[in-house]
Amino acid sequence: MAVRYYFVPKIGAGTAPDPFRPKYVDDDALGAGWNLRGRHFGMDYGFEAVFLLVADLTTQEHATLAAQSDVTAFPANLDATVGGALTTVQNRLEAAHLPANWVTAGHTYRQVLRAVRRIVTFMQRFQGLFPLERVFASGITLGTQLNQLTAAQRQRLQAVAASLNLDTSGVTNAMTLRQVLKLMADQLPDKTINGDSL
Amino acid sequence: MTRTDDFDRANGALGANWSDVFDSSHQIVISSNTVFGEGATSLNGAYWSADSWTGDHESQAVSDNGASFSSVGVRLATTGGGQGYVYFSHGSIQKIVGGANSQISAGSAFVGDDIAKIRIIGDDLEWFINGVSQGTFSDASIGSGGAPGIVIYDSVANLDDWAGTDFAVGGGSAIPVIMQAYKRRRGA
Lengths: 198, 188
Fold this sequence. Notes:
Number of strands of chain A: 7
Shape of chain A: globular
Largest sheet of chain A: 5 strands, antiparallel
Helix content of chain B: under 10%
Distance between the termini of chain A: 20 Å
Order of helices and strands of chain B: EEEEEEEEEEEEEEEEH
Order of helices and strands of chain A: EEEEHEHHHHEE
Helix content of chain A: 25-40%
Shape of chain B: globular
Oligomer: heterodimer
Largest sheet of chain B: 9 strands, antiparallel
Radius of gyration of chain B: 14 Å
Number of helices of chain B: 1
Number of strands of chain B: 16
């Protein structure tokens, strides 16, 4: 068994019996006997349609999950560099509204995952403070500049930063959401996730 | 600080020590000295509001009939139509934000006579059955505030002998307190 990290789609209706959750964590989701109870945790990305899934899987279970076309698996060795997978990594992250233009071939997957975990944390707090609002509302992308947002949308982002004790003095209205999210995430402390400092 | 409620009183509303998490149509109500959800196929919830709580606290209760979907909850508040972190009897650890449930993990279900507990300190959640940790994980959505309490999705599952403990106000685990009440009630 080994703890691995995955991006998987979000499923569910948001109710107690059918909560939003990572795809493939249900009993029998990938065949009879498939059971990840007590061995998985999910971090949602606010209202976005993905989960960061942390799961302690056997080699066979990992192979089965990673083979799904809508699953992105981080390698077992998080200290390996992104290398030739750079374009794939960037595209997968940005498709989920996760800033990735900062990633280079020389970054390790641990560095990528650490940034992702922090950005997810920022977005979770946004959802907690403003449960009826979306950062990426219609027409808003990672490339949207702060000065293209409404004052209320900017104030929400500022409130989230304040809630997490983040310094916003370096933020300018010409910055894109891509830049702002990364700038905020870089200030968050590491968190130990199943033994990994992320 | 630990607060307890054995619900041994007349059927109906919980009383002045409690407030609704959602709305007055989705209350936790007493029936035969245990508590049920008022509405079927909807979230019903109550938090202990007679005292002020810091964000670091735990909530636990005895599962009475063991049916799905009862839960103990922390950081419960009316914000956004009701929010908090809950440990449901079918083994699902969920957060409720904006009236929507998202699963953080899924593990062991708790059944009749089990004591279920969920604890949050900072961003770190931990959940227990009969004092044995079932898992830990972090979530940053609800960063502070709220209170411990109970959430039940339907009108079938029930809970009994609730206790909430605040760790920043003379805190300590409420397991001994609730076990005493439980044994007294069961004649053990």
